[in-house]
Amino acid sequence: MNNSLQVFRDEPGFMKLFGLFRDKFRSLGRVGGFVSLKGFKDAEVESIAGFLGLSSNELIEKGRVGLLQFERELANTGFSNLTFVELLEEIFQEPLLSKKQEAENNLRLENEFITLLNLEIPEAGWWLEWISERGPDTRWIWSLYRQDELLLSRMIRKVSNAFLSLPKKGDFERLPFFAQRTTGNPHFFDISELGGRLLLHFLAVNKKTLGEPEFPFPKNTEEINDLLAEFGLLRDDLWNFVTVQGLIAFSQGETHPVWNAAVQTRTVLNVPMKELARLESIRPASGRMVWIVENSSVASTIMDAVPDAAVVCTHGQLRAASWRLLDQLAEGECTFLYSGDLDPEGVLIADRLKKRYRDKLVLWRMDPVAYEISISNEDIAGRIAKLDGVSSQEWEEVVRMMCEKKKAGYQEALLDLLIEDIKQAQ
Fold first, then answer.
1. SS3 annotation, the chain
2. Could you give all domains of the chain from N- to C-terminal order, each with its CATH number?
3. What tens digit of pLDDT does each residue of 390-426 get?
């Protein structure tokens, strides 16, 4: 530290002035512009005026000090060996960078951070690449980097290592036990903790980059539970359920007695994920057709009308239990017939199902004719943009009609046709 600069520290007002100089330089990226003296005390203005060769009244009248003006006067003092920038760097004991230079420097350091992690955990390269692109979903991660780089680095490694120890496909493990097994802390992946937030981001990016680019980042408890369950992690295995009728399940090589009794007594089951995880296989009790509807009221009425049919109700957006059930059914020789609402959200659900089960799934009463029959007065103009995520040509005509009419079509108007379809197929 240059001790001769103590004179500036002792003179009233100069440190305040230098702070304003630093901010102005960072903003402009060069020595130029002016800083206001508003808020300076009389003694401070007098001290600065003396340095500039002005009277206090002259400086008060000006009300500001130019950076170039100060630099010129600096050359006429005992500090002529210092440039304006060098003076401020000595005063504040840190490099003086413009905001642009600082941003470029930070970007370089951030890229180095990602590069080093990539070398250490190459198996997570796809995740690190996503983070390096700095999308809106990564802002909180970069904010953490600026707060504690070492903590973020350590947490990323832990999440990446834990991912390699996920339950194998078809198996499930409760989240606290997975956390205990992989980190030694059962609460490490709690959703309220940093580890949990990073794990969710990791899993969502995995789906987006490795197969489902339109997959959304989870925004509520239900979506969080579903995402975890897709990777074999159970956070809530009781409330996560699917409603079924006319299906037989097998466990330990034998027909499950509860499912068998439900078929015999024409009983509808709400089956939680906890029970689905224990089953070996599921199939229709008779025939090969499984009728799937999203609307619970429609499903209940269908179940009343055709109590022997294999019917599944997903209750809107499919949760982990629904996916588990359908995946197990898909392993057998059965055909899915899916019917949902003809609004943007309903089409997206059906499209996702179609992409997952392909030829095994038939869209049921979700065509232009069904749309004309089921059309309502509900305006969907503000939600039409969601249909941009639908790529299959199978939807082309329905999407075109929805974009033109900007009205939703609902399953309730198709109920009699749905019931008749099932009766004719039996």
1. CCHHHHHHHHCCCHHHHHHHHHHHHHHHCCCCCEEECCCCCHHHHHHHHHHHCCCHHHHHHHCEEEHHHHHHHHCCCCCCCCCHHHHHHHHHCCCCCCHHHHHHHHHHHHHHHHHHHHHHCHHHHHHHHHHHCCCHHHHHHHHHHHHCHHHHHHHHHHHHHHHCCCCCCCCCEEHHHHHHHHHCCCCCCCCCCHHHHHHHHHHHHHHHHCCCCCCCCCCCHHHHHHHHHHCCEECCCCCCEEEEECEEEEECCEECHHHHHHHHCCCCEEEEHHHHCCCCEEEECCCCEEEEECCHHHHHHHHHHCCCCCEEECCCCCCHHHHHHHHHHHCCCCEEEEECCECHHHHHHHHHHHHHHHHHEEECCCCHHHHHHHEEEEECHHHHHHHHHCCCHHHHHHHHHHHHHCEEECHHHHHHHHHHHHHHHC
2. 3-96 (no CATH), 100-234 (no CATH), 241-425 (3.40.1360.10)
3. 877 788 899 999 999 999 999 999 999 999 999 999 8
